[in-house]
Amino acid sequence: MKLYPTLENRLPEGGLCHDVTTSDGLHLRAFSARQTHAKATLFILNGRAEYIERYFETINDMVKRGFAVVSFDWRGQGGSQRLLSDPMRGYVKSFKNYDRDLEAIIGLARRLDFPEPFYALAHSTGGNILLRALRDQNWFKRAVVSAPLLGLHFGKWPLPLVRILTLGAKLLGLSGSYLPGYGRGPMKRSEFPNNPLTSDRTRWNRDMTTLEAHPELGVGGATYGWLRAVMQSLDALHTWPKAQGPSCPTMIIMAGQDRVVSNFDTRRFVENTAGFSLLTIEDSRHEILMESNAIRSKFFAAFDAFMGLET
Q1: Can you give the CATH number for the domain in which 114 is found?
Q2: Cβ atoms of residues 92 and 227 within 8 Å
Q3: What is the pTM of this model?
């Protein structure tokens, strides 16, 4: 396993690649960067179909803030072990398997003697998985979640029908089939106009350069199996006992222009669950950390204040 920097996206100083084995025997590609002055460790949990290289810029931002950083690719994406014979299909059987991935990465940081306390920054699907951990584990001192997957936009499809379709696909052995309307490969450079992820063409092109050089990092559309696993995880999170807060102070930052996850469901989650703070960056699309400098500055102002960092 290796990392793939480019001229526009250089490897963070001291960055190392690791092969991590999960408790069920899968291989994950992980990353670490540690400077001698680091007093704490930040874990960066990316979203569906993402890969470590997309976060090189953010990793550098965090190293400058004094963090050691650990990141990784979830099973089935990036440079980690794929789960189906067609590696482009976005699939997972259960989010409990993602729980195993995160547990393995915590173990890596401890084996490498990375400095505690541990903090977490998670995006989208990574946010869903982090929230699962914050319900049951005491790994982190503080956590920030960007545009969490707490609900999806199903358009004209009613939720009961979505549940029936995903169950039917499982019974018919079609869990690995693409959902209708989803592409069979990752997004392309030409798809920037009106894309739901970012308004920043420079960062979009930077990431496309990486994918064009290393298409094996990419993932195509989601499958029925992935969506069924999402629905089960959402059901679990939305039945979080109201009086039970997260295991550490947690701030959720929504993207006001989000067309990927449902801000309505995120607000509902925060209103029905104790212990979360909520902020919206109104002019941001889904991927806040891949957005324009002005939008990223708003994110980091909130992040620094919440983490108690000097600016």
Answers
A1: 3.40.50.1820
A2: no
A3: 0.95
